[in-house]
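Researcher: Please predict.
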Amino acid sequence: MKEWLEKLRDSKKLIIVEGKKDKAALEKLGITDVVALLRKPLFSFIESINAEEVIILTDLDPEGKKLYNVLKQGLQEKGIKIDTYFREYLFKNSKLAQIEGIYHYLKKEKIIEE
C-alpha cells in the first residue's frame, strides 16, 4: 500500500472523487490534483474535465461502482483515458469501502504516520 500511495502522489494525473470529504482525505495524504463531483450533473461535470488521463476513485460500494461506470464511459467517449490501476489495487488489496476513510485506514494499517 505504501508503494501504491507513492505512485498515486507521483502520478500527476487528475483524480476524480465523489465529495468534499474524499477530496480532503486525499489532500491530507499530500495528493493535490483532486476534483470532487459535488452534486453537479454528471454530463456537465464530464464536459468540464480537460485532461488526457484521469484516475477515478469513487467509493467501493454499489453506488460508487455505478458512478464509476458512468464516469468512465462518459470520459472515454470524450477521448480521455482512464487509469484503472489505483482503483483495482484498492479492491484487491484493502478492506477500504469509502475513499473518505483512506487516511484513517492507512494510519491504522501503519502505512503512514501522523
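Model: Helices lie at 2-10, 20-28, 42-48, 62-77, 85-93, 102-108.
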